[in-house]
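Handoff note, outgoing to incoming analyst
You'll be picking up this chain. Sequence as last confirmed:
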Amino acid sequence: MLNYKKYRKQIEKLYEDLATISRHVKAKKLSGETKLERQVVYNDVPCRLSQKALSAGYQTEAANEIAYETKLFIQPELEIKPGDIVAINRLRLGPMSEYTAGESFLYGSHQEVILTQEAKA
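Most recent structure output, in case you need it:
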């Protein structure tokens, strides 16, 4: 059997970014009306961002669309749902970027989450 604690410790040494994960939840206003509100579920969690793919841009009538696909390595006990908003603070590499979470895949030592970011050129 694998010693996941040992592997996890080694993997987490590579975490050099911080993730803030939020999602839209139903919130009741004082008037009784229900609306969706963005709520932070995890704040400044150590993680690592890795570039998975950079697609060729495609032209629409309005703009040149560019879709980035990135992989997030993060603690396995966090519940990250598809559609969650993941803000990554790249401590050494520049400003914060926002992504949308896709499906996550759990391992004993970490989880990997596909992130997408759309930009217009």
